[in-house]
Amino acid sequence: MTPETATRERTITWDDPKPLLAEAATLSGLEYMQRLAAGEIPPPPIAKLMGFELPEIAEGNVSISCVPQEWHYNPIGMVHGGLAATMLDTVLGISIHTTLAAGEAYTTVDLHVQYLRAMSVDTGRVKATGKVVHRGRRIATAEGRLTDADGKLIATGITTCMIL
């Protein structure tokens, strides 16, 4: 086997998310996400798996970042579009989550992603931002953007979530 085709290995560890669910129900969505961003609450397993960082959080606005890695690649040698979709789904949902009162929850009803540019390991750090467009009693919508370090647009997304 040549070095170019050598098998790679990646180990991932995460905290059990179940104990956090009870705590989350006692906090507003913004309080919970601020504690998560401050490192007072361990990140969810998806953040560890995908390599997400939560650098910015405010009511109705959030951003996460990630550096695309080889393990994000699809069979054609580019970062799988699922990374962009997952990043956008995450910031769109969290932006809505920051508007929730203690005890409220939400679920995604619809997610639309428009891909504009491919990513590779050479892309460097990418940032997804999401902001709430409408927050009603039962329905909320948000829009988001995924950009590279130079601000070039990689993908956009919109979501509708049901408030529970």
UniProtKB/TrEMBL annotation:
<keyword id="KW-0378">Hydrolase</keyword>
<feature type="domain" description="Thioesterase">
    <location>
        <begin position="77"/>
        <end position="154"/>
    </location>
</feature>
<dbReference type="InterPro" id="IPR029069">
    <property type="entry name" value="HotDog_dom_sf"/>
</dbReference>
<dbReference type="InterPro" id="IPR006683">
    <property type="entry name" value="Thioestr_dom"/>
</dbReference>
<protein>
    <submittedName>
        <fullName>PaaI family thioesterase</fullName>
    </submittedName>
</protein>
<dbReference type="InterPro" id="IPR003736">
    <property type="entry name" value="PAAI_dom"/>
</dbReference>
<dbReference type="Pfam" id="PF03061">
    <property type="entry name" value="4HBT"/>
</dbReference>
